[in-house]
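Q: What would this chain look like folded?
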Amino acid sequence: MKFNSTRNNLSSVDAAYAIVNGLSEDGGLFVPQSVPKITADKLELWKNASYCEIAYEILKDYLTDFSENELKSCIEKAYKSFDTEEVVPLHKLDETTSVMELWHGPTCAFKDVALQILPHLLTVSAKKTGIDKTIVILVATSGDTGKAALVGFSDVRGTKIQVFFPNNGVSEIQKLQMVTQEGDNVCSCAANGNFDDVQSNVKRIFTDENFNNTLSDKGYMLSSANSINWGRLVPQIVYYVNAYCNLLRNNEIKAGEEINFVVPTGNFGNILAGYFAKAAGVPIKKLICASNENNVLTDFIRTGVYDKNRKFSLTISPSMDILISSNLERLLYILSNRNDSEIAGYMKELSQNGSYQVSDSIQKQIDDIFWAGFCDDEQTKKTIKDTFEQYHYLIDTHTAVAKAVCDQYQKETGDTAKTVIASTASPFKFNGSVYQALFGKPDMISEFDLLFALSDKTGVPVPKPLAELKEKEIRFEQVCEISQMKQMVEEFLK
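A: My prediction, written as C-alpha cells:
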C-alpha cells in the first residue's frame, strides 16, 4: 500500500515513511491510495475473533511493508495493558442502542487504542526507513491525546516526547495525568491559548525548515503522535469493525444489516476512522457527528461551509473545544476524487480567510454519509443525569454529547437501526462536571476527594490509573506563551 499527500498526488510513500514523518513536507496529510475491502464473508468469519486478531487483519492490508511478526508483536504489546480482554467492550443500553467503551486503556480515554500501538509502529518504521536520529514526538493536545502519547512513548528507546496543552483548557484530572508523567524522555508544558492556537503552532514548528535543519544537525527529527499521523488513525478503524462483529456474535443484528455510529467529534479523526470502515464495506448506515457548543463541524456537515470565524467556547467537554478539524482534510481529499489542487485551495482559504465552501459534489456525498447535531453544557449535564437514572450507567461529558445527539437523530429521523455510541473517556476523568450533573455542586474541592465521592455515590469504582494519581509527584510546571513554544522545544532538547 502506498500513501499520497492530500496536497500533492505526486508524493507517494510507504506506510513506514508516512508513520515516521507524520506530516507530508507540503503540509498535507498522508492518505492510503485505496481502501482495502471488507467482505460480508470476512465479517462473518471475524465475529468470533478476538480484538487483536481483527486488528491484525485490518492493519496488514494498510501497512503492507510490515511483516506478520512485526504487526502481531506491535498489537500484542499495545493491548496487554488494557484492563479488559475485550479491549473495547460493548455495553447494551436498550434494544436499539449500545455504548462502545473506548476507555479501558492505561489513561482511561479512547486515544489509548491508537497511542499504545503507535510507538511500536514508529520504532519498527524507523528501522525500515534507516532513521538513525532520535525521533522527537511533538504533540498538541486538548486533553486525552497528551497523556496517552506520554504513556505510550515513555522510555521508548530512540524517542523523546514533548506535549503542549492549553492552559485552563483541560480538566484537572487530564492536567494531573500529564504533569506527573514518569519517564526520562518525556515533557509536558501548558501554553496560554486554546487548543487551536497550540495545534496551529505545532504545525508551524513542523514546517519550519530552518528549525528542522537545526534539529537534524543535532541528531533529532520531528514526528507526530496527533491524529494527523496515519499510524494513529489506522488502529481506530479496528474498533468500528470489531463493534459490528460483536453485534453479529451477540445476535443483535443479522449479517448485512446496517447500523449507525454516533461519535463525539472535535478533530474529526475518530469519526473519520468510521468512514474508512464504511468505505471498506462494513454495513454502516449513518455516521452521526456530535458536537458541543463549538459546533463548526455540525454546521459544515449541514451546509458545506467550514467557518472557524466564530466564538470559541470553553465547555465541560473540553476535548471537543476545537475549531480547526485537521482530519477533515483527508475526507475532503477522498470525496473530491483525490483532487490535490482542490484540497490545497480549500486549506489556503482556511488559512487566509478562516473559511471555505466545498463543491456541490462533495456536499452531496457528505449528506449521504453523515448526520450532525450538537448540544450545550446544560443539555450535556441533563443527559448524564438521565442516562444514569434510566440505565444506571455512568458516562462522561463527551459521551453525553454523543448520547444527546443520538436522541436528537432518532427523534428527528425516526430511524430505528441499531446504533453504537462511541464512549471516549471514563466519567472519572471529568469528575467535577459529572458529579455536578448528578448531585449538584460538590462540597469538596480536592480532585481526589471528588473522584472517590463520585464513586461512593454511584457505586462505580474509580479506574486504577486515576486513583493512583494522588501518589504521583508533579514533575512539570512550565507555562509558556504560544510564541514561546519553539523555545520550549529547544530547551527540552538541550
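Residues 164 and 189 are 5 Å apart (CA to CA).
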